[in-house]
Amino acid sequence: FRLSFHFCSMSDFTGTATVVGCVPKAGKKKVRPTFLVVLDRSAFFPEDGGQLRDEGSIEGHPVIGLSRNASGQVDHEVDCEFQIGQQVHWIVDEQVRFDHMQVHSGQHLISAIAEDQFQMHTLSWSMTTSGPATVDLSLPVAPAPGTSTPSAVAAADDADALLNRALAVTEQQVNMRIRENQPI
């Protein structure tokens, strides 16, 4: 049971669960082996849809990886072997979860406003743990002279001016929506 999907803004980031699976992680030989632990209920969010994975611990052991296995369950990679049926205490790092949720939601907001106002399509976006998030957008589209039908801007000066305006308006609109604090 994946609590992370049902409680994306949980107020309690700790709990207990029962170990229903624990196997050594296959792959490269490591100085210290790691194990993939499956819990009967998990609040840990694995990386998905561009949002980074949660961080936290199980029984004080840092969760160093999270992934979905072939059965759709969450594998929690830890440096400790647990026994099937063992009750364990887990903690999700609340600040990391909140940071990831804010960045992910912000990307959706930027993309929606840029698309709506300037037909700027999101080409890609990236979240990392070591630097800023990035959103790559297509160039803005302006109405053809004398019409309301969008067409690609041809003149370089017009394109630069339009791009600067599009970025300024998008930033202003995003900040306004954030201040409105609307539920999502």
Structure report:
With 184 residues, this protein is α+β, with helices and mostly antiparallel strands. Helices cover 29% and strands 28% of the residues. It has three helices and eleven strands, in the order αβββββββαββββα. The strands form three sheets. A seven-stranded antiparallel β-sheet has the order 4-3-7-1-2-6-5. The longest helix has 25 residues, at 94-118. The model is unreliable at 1-9 and 151-156 (pLDDT under 50).
Q: How are the SSEs ordered, and which strands pair?
A:
Blueprint: H1 3-6, E1 14-24, E2 35-39, E3 56-58, E4 61-62, E5 65-68, E6 74-78, E7 87-92, H2 94-118, E8 122-126, E9 134-137, E10 141-143, E11 150-152, H3 156-180
Antiparallel strand pairs: 1-2, 1-7, 2-6, 3-4, 3-7, 5-6, 8-9, 10-11
Helix pairs in contact: 2-3
Main beta sheet: 7 strands, antiparallel
Name the helix and strand elements from N-terminus to C-terminus, one letter apiece: HEEEEEEEHEEEEH
Number of strand elements: 11
Oligomer: single chain
- Look at the helices and sheets and give the structural class: alpha+beta
The gross shape turns out to be: elongated
Kindly report the spatial arrangement of strands forming the biggest sheet: 4-3-7-1-2-6-5
Tally of individual helices? 3
User: How much strand content do the residues show?
Assistant: 25-35%
* Estimated helix fraction: 25-40%
List key phrases describing it:
184 residues, single chain, 29% helix, alpha+beta, disordered N terminus, two-stranded antiparallel ribbon, 28% strand, elongated
Provide a brief overview of the structure:
The chain is an alpha+beta fold. The protein is 29% helix and 28% strand.
